[in-house]
Amino acid sequence: MRLTVIGSALAICLFFGATYASEVARYDNYRVYEVIPTSENQLKLLNELKQSSDSLIFLESGSHAGAKFNIVVAPHKLADFTEALLNEGINARIVDKNMQRSIDQERNRMKSRRTKGVFDFQDYHELDDIHAWLDKLATEYEQVEVVEGGHSFENRSIKGVKVSYKSGNPGVFIEGGIHAREWISPATVTYILNELLTSQDPKVRGIAENYDWYFFPSVNPDGYVYTHKKDRLWRKTRTPYSGGCFGADPNRNWDFHWAEQGTSNRCQADTYGGPYAFSEVETKTLSQYVASLKGKIQAYISFHSYSQLLLFPYGHTGAHTPNHNDLNEIAKATVTSLAKRYGTKYKYGNIYDAIYPASGASVDWAYGTLGVKIAYTYELRPGSNSWNGFVLPASKIVPTGEETLDSLVTLLEESERRGYYENCKDC
After folding, report:
1. Are 130 and 218 in contact (CB under 8 A)?
2. Would residue 34 show up in a list of annotated catalytic residues for this protein?
3. Cis amide bond preceding 382, omega within 30
4. Does 21 have pLDDT greater than 80?
5. pLDDT of residue 22
6. Is the pTM here over 0.90, yes or no?
7. Predicted confidence band at 52 (pLDDT cuts at 50, 70, 90)?
């Protein structure tokens, strides 16, 4: 009898384990609102809602009155949310009545393409496919070497490749996918990598062969897998914390003015910076790898989405970096170059002023700790007028990659022209 009870209990546990393992987050009838606060009190309310409610997802957040917020609201939260806005006199516009529709369309397209077993830039790819493609490149090109930048909490590799055509080149570090739901980031990183290997354009060949490249398409692999398998809008890592909470924001977790600005101390929040700097094994191990290249890495570029911004340090303070004018002028030339192909307009500036205060970011750490003086973050397509920027249609991958590569050529040319790579002692 005892064996029967134990066996039954085990069967129940296995049943529930299998049931929970198959659960996928859905956003049926989740509405998306566009909200623009017009006063400091209204802005304060939105920031309080952002910090206090787990039933609201802030796709885009502003830092001042007049800035736009795109907010996903769960069905059961609609009454409270709209009443809170009404009480404060905040106008809101519904831009989508069913968030799940876009996610389903994206997932169905990916399923139909995955059966073809082709790695191209007509659709988004899962982590295993990206890693397999990186391995394949290393077998096809003698200039490509697979490297490991660290590992994740769930023991996935932070896999990348080094591309080198000759010794003595300054190094460029390319980081993608640190925020899991920003799929256009790994797609753009892999597109640029492919172009550096295959393009015959003289300017592309120039940067391909005169720099050593370190490409890491997905530096938050657990989170990226989770967005494909469980929750399309997941942002953080997957480290388990007390109270049934998971993950920290890996772009608030770097040990440079950690947790000083734009970071939540609530584990449930998307901007939770972790219990301490480098608490996440992803940021800790990746930082160790980057630090091992100190002196070699002369430019650090991080790709995010969305809002069409080109940002540079600092995020923890409005004080300017010593080379702020250079970074600003390089950014201006870069976004001008980016706009030429498709007319895509970017804004630019230091992180603190151009978007919002945010400390503990990777580019700030690279700049402030390793002394990498050319450090930029791209916030890729779409622009801030889009309500659904994380579920960007796959048809936008190639245009985004093309214009971004155009701009990257300019970014490196402009920084080289200013003498930033002349003293590369360890290259």
Report:
1. yes
2. no
3. yes
4. no
5. 63
6. yes
7. confident
